[in-house]
Design goal:
Blueprint lengths: L3 H16 L5 H11 L8 E6 L5 E5 L12 H12 L7 E7 L5 H6 L1 H22 L8 E9 L5 E10 L1 E4 L4 E4 L8 H18 L14 E5 L4 H9 L11 E5 L2 E7 L6 E7 H9 L10 E5 L6 H11 L4 H4 L17 E8 L12
Antiparallel strand pairs: 1-2, 1-13, 3-5, 3-8, 4-5, 4-12, 6-7, 9-10, 10-11
Length: 358
């Protein structure tokens, strides 16, 4: 398998000479972090067997949230947290897409535009929930920002997973809406567009010459919601491409594959090494920006409400957790016992006299 670190090592100089002027400081930091991920350049941690005297040193992962080589444990933890908040209701995935005419503005002001997308998407869904004849209350939602298409092009959009259910705080009622229809996607798009343009006006952002009248919002039924959460969670902390999808790296070019969203078949694309690194690094988010957010009664501050709903409706979300794959334990090569981390972030120079595992 070709690692992203190996691609960076081979094409970093070409990439920087061509794209240096377009890079932000956090993108350069991400480049250097992913280059050293679990390589001879990274620090190591000492692990000891709990049952025998065996010890070894393991290369550290870089911890960069755009790195496809690590962050698997963080992804699993996020999925578990969200599944524990599941409620007995039909779930829907609403996808709010930023039109192409505004994407250059998003590149210039990513933190502001992405925050606006989150705020306006949630405000739109909250208003529809309060005005819906069957719901008429406060909704709950889990929103995740994606900035890439399957082909790795720049395509900012927000997935919002929400149950067709509300909490009526005044009457203290729990209401649900049954069926595979939640809200009309064209109506959602109109309100989302109006809210985004109003915020742009408030922030005094320059309007492009042509803003489309019709924006795209998709509203899709996703059953109990667990599969949609697992899908989003798996791509939340692992960057924009899996390393097994990097097929070749030779003659100054990189070939990778992606799944076509319409045909569901895999397609391949070949670009220069520098171009490939730009396709990956253009999706690095501003430092500290949260790309996953919870709203309404699914907010972390509403744990008491969730527990009450589970108790009153006798709903146990842990049944779904049992079906998730458990993270494999790090076992001892000598006796098979559990390995325990002793020290972290040890510089390579301290253990150069000891052999490292390949």
């Amino acid at each position: 398998m070709i690692t992203l670190a190996a691609v960076i090592d081979q094409f970093q100089s070409d990439f920087l000479s061509e794209y240096q002027s377009r890079l932000r400081s956090n993108q350069i930091s991400a480049l250097h972090a992913m280059k050293s991920c679990r390589t001879q350049l990274s620090p190591v941690m000492q692990v000891n067997c709990a049952d025998c005297d065996y010890q070894t040193f393991v290369p550290h992962s870089c911890g960069q949230r755009n790195c496809p080589h690590c962050q698997h444990h963080e992804s699993q933890q996020w999925i578990e947290r969200q599944v524990q908040k599941q409620v007995p209701a039909d779930y829907f995935m609403n996808t709010f897409t930023l039109p192409a005419q505004l994407r250059s503005l998003a590149r210039q002001h990513p933190r502001l535009l992405y925050s606006m997308m989150f705020d306006c998407a949630w405000a739109t869904l909250q208003s529809f929930s309060k005005n819906d004849k069957q719901l008429q209350g406060d909704a709950g939602a889990i929103a995740v920002l994606h900035t890439h298409s399957r082909e790795l092009n720049y395509h900012p959009h927000i997935h919002v997973i929400m149950p067709a259910a509300i909490v009526d705080k005044i009457k203290k009622l729990w209401r649900t809406k049954e069926g595979k229809y939640l809200f009309h996607h064209k109506a959602l798009a109109k309100v989302f567009r109006a809210k985004m343009l109003a915020r742009m006006n408030e922030e005094k952002l320059p309007f492009p010459k042509a803003i489309p009248e019709k924006w795209v919002v998709d509203c899709k039924f996703v059953g109990a919601g667990d599969k949609a959460l697992i899908y989003l969670g798996r791509y939340l902390y692992r960057g924009v491409i899996r390393e097994q999808d990097i097929l070749s790296c030779q003659n100054g070019k990189v070939t990778y594959r992606y799944q076509d969203s319409k045909t569901k078949r895999y397609q391949t694309k070949t670009v220069s090494g520098a171009k490939f690194l730009w396709l990956v690094l253009q999706h690095v988010l501003p430092k500290g920006f949260r790309r996953a957010r919870n709203y309404g009664f699914l907010h972390p501050n509403s744990k008491g409400v969730i527990k009450l709903i589970h108790s009153l409706l006798k709903f146990d979300p842990t049944k779904i957790l049992r079906a998730l794959k458990v993270r494999p334990a790090f076992s001892c090569k000598c006796c098979g016992g559990a390995m325990v981390v002793g020290r972290r972030q040890i510089p390579r120079v301290e253990i150069m006299f000891q052999p490292l595992p390949t």
